[in-house]
## 1
Amino acid sequence: MDRSIQDVARLVGTTSRTLRHYDRLGLLPPSRVGSNGYRYYDDDALVRLQRILLLRGLGLGLPAITEVLNREAEPARALRKHLELLRQEQERLARQIASVSLTIDQLEGGEQLMAENMFDGFDHTRYKDEVEERWGAEAYATGDRWWRGMSEAERTQYKARTAQLGADWTAAAEQGIAPDSDAAQELARRHFEWLSGVPGLPSSDGRPSKEYFVGLGDMYVADDRFAANYGGRKGAEFVRDALKVFADRRL
Amino acid sequence: MDRSIQDVARLVGTTSRTLRHYDRLGLLPPSRVGSNGYRYYDDDALVRLQRILLLRGLGLGLPAITEVLNREAEPARALRKHLELLRQEQERLARQIASVSLTIDQLEGGEQLMAENMFDGFDHTRYKDEVEERWGAEAYATGDRWWRGMSEAERTQYKARTAQLGADWTAAAEQGIAPDSDAAQELARRHFEWLSGVPGLPSSDGRPSKEYFVGLGDMYVADDRFAANYGGRKGAEFVRDALKVFADRRL
DNA sequence: CGTATAGGTTGACGTCGCGTCAAGGTCAAC
DNA sequence: GTTGACCTTGACGCGACGTCAACCTATACG
């Protein structure tokens, strides 16, 4: 009924070295030890091993696993604590990825920055100088880090959403509806939500402030490069007016 | 002109132990060593140290830094290689975070799974049983992991995009345009792209297969819960027909 | 019975970038 | 001479094992 160390290792996809390691830590003692020193494991030990490997697969350390399995700690609580560590690590990684990307670009082209990489989206931070002038260098850097921290798929998705928003604005403007109509206000609401996903805004809670939101509309009208995203000057004026109404009513 | 090891350490914000470590690795030998064994550093050494710390801050290992600083490796190339490692690590972390979240939920509520958390989006994997039955439990688990790996902002964004797509389908269906019209086919293309962002599809390259895409349309019609996303039975039929035309032409 | 082969055992080093003692020498000031 | 700040080398610890090394045991086969 009992299995040798190799049998167990193969059964669960690990190595005998690992099992010996767990034995020495007191994490998984063999159910029986032969007079020759051989380790043998029964079904209970196998169950315990499975649990160990599951928790280890989630990234928990062996001491933490020991606590949980010995009922000295609550599994859910331990996992939540662990989850927080994982999230922190993930954010640290994202920042590092952003820094590395930035450094590569600087090494290669000298200031060939975000703008060129995302010409078809992200319009309010599209041009480094403008953004820095209006909202400060830190806001630009934050946005740049955010953008670089995203995966390719996420960027594609974001750009698609941005393009869609621009197209819908353009279509609405061409239909000649009023800026305070329900349809236009729904677009303004989407615009607001779209902005809310972008860090680096001059606001603490991740959502654009009223001033910023209104100012953005003015910028769209004032700058043809931005206006182009909304079907030209006329479209940009429509967007500006709709955003203004939205801001007055809801912000 | 030369500085003692403590002076240097304080100057750049590190410790004397670290400087001794770098010395022993041959990464940063002191510019001068007194007869008493004391280490002294000149300005060149300081510059080199700054570079070391910069690269270390980006996550590079000391051997890699050694190569770069000794001109045995190209900085940009080394960083790109490093960047790839970072991205892999980040994805691994995302998966782990998803798994941990899932485990916590299972421990706490027993099967309060994704479905409840995202009632307003993600329709084709909205119901665990249906999905498992049609595409296998693994596909469901993959989708669930993907969903849990996203940040709150990403989820919001995804749901908004999903809702928008549904609304646009509904509007198109109500206008009574033909399923093979340009407008409908543009919607079908968006639908296809929207699906492409979702892992766990029965396809290797991350894009839905033709069969899956067409089958999805049938499912929308067959199941009122799905049809509701597209303006009811009529709308779902319109979607199904448009997807079919798209699949025949493009997949 | 000898032997080839496939197991098993303990012990110890290496990983990565230092932090942290430990034990002791050096220097400037009082 | 003493104090206190600073310097040196050497060695352990961290985390979860991988990877030898050296040696013992079980089983099958001729």
Note: Chain B has a mean pLDDT of 76.
## 2
Amino acid sequence: MSTAEETSGGEVQPWGEVTPDAARRLLVAAVEAFAERGYHATTTRDIAGRAGMSPAALYIHYKTKEELLHRISRIGHEKALDVLRTAAESEGGPAERLAEAVRSFVRWHAGQHTVARVVQYELDALGPEARAEIVALRRQNDAAVRGIIEDGVAAGDFDVPDVRGTTIAVLSLCIDVARWFNVNGPRTPDEVGALYADLVLRMVGAKSRPRP
Amino acid sequence: MSTAEETSGGEVQPWGEVTPDAARRLLVAAVEAFAERGYHATTTRDIAGRAGMSPAALYIHYKTKEELLHRISRIGHEKALDVLRTAAESEGGPAERLAEAVRSFVRWHAGQHTVARVVQYELDALGPEARAEIVALRRQNDAAVRGIIEDGVAAGDFDVPDVRGTTIAVLSLCIDVARWFNVNGPRTPDEVGALYADLVLRMVGAKSRPRP
DNA sequence: TCCGAAGCTGAGCGCCCGCTTAGAGCGCCC
DNA sequence: GGGCGCTCTAAGCGGGCGCTCAGCTTCGGA
């Protein structure tokens, strides 16, 4: 399960739950390499090199290259799901909750777009059981978003003829941010999040949107 | 597999412009394989095998495996751009043109999702100059959609605070259909196209939408 | 002081990759 | 009929891949 990632000093560090230190460095190197070139185009020599180690060192901490991808996918999905759920379960009406969910989910996919790319686009490189585990996590994303939209419809705040289809569209819109987002582009993750939250409220026909 | 688009007076099948026949069969096999496993995970032996030929036969028609990907990407993008432009330049107001553009673009990405996947997600496997060529084609997609939205804003039909951002979002939404669309799922390409056209009209705040 | 476990490296194994080459089959034009 | 060019195959080359293993270093505990 996803737990707090704090050192004794209290600082939050991205892959804090991965120990020992060498294993974490290898995993961070793998995320970089997979995001840049793709899983199949990345060699174990490249990963080890980025982590400042010999190729053989990788196999002390991970059984195979695929296990690295699996760990990255699981942790990444859990983080994204955590971000989404926190927003979905927050205080406020459906419109506020949906806006906050989209805002934070998009912010994560933009800010952590290297991880997000690996997590979203390398699923097929996993074996059947690892893939099944990840797919289950994805369905929880879907359920979280659908839940908010259903609440909004029930409350009469939203006008949505096709709840399942709209849910897919909203999630798809957010996830695809990981594909096109560019750190050197004109927008910050916060700005994209705000823009997308507004667009999604329009998609669900929210009766009263927060001021732009 | 859908191969034969019937000809009434000379209209061609999906990859009709690729000759000779053996080159076309190899290309179709490559599209299947790339879409299924990804470019880097696909071997030239696999492609040739699917086309019913020996591995060496591939190199009579294509200089390298990368050239195959390049040809697929170029033709695929040109087809998609053609679909989009035809709709963008059709008769009617901005709302009708935008709806038709989204409807047909989405229909293409759903119906031809194998090609679309290769075209959209394997761009990084291309060399610098081939990639530059494809990126140029993408910018034309962007310009086509932005043009319609600008028309709608100028005519007072749309309410769009951020035209560039909304353009990216609309295209992103359509393109990502290629990732999640499933032939065995509950929706046909036509249905997804209709749903998405409605959602996009909401996103741009179209004053009067066609009947749902 | 010594010992065993843990972490890591240099060397390298066996496999399969993209791609090449020599040559066979076959239709076409003179 | 015969040479030619196009298409295709069987065989295989060089190389880089994922991964392994023997052995070195480091270090905490008895």
Note: Confidence is low (pLDDT under 50) at residues 1-10 of chain A.
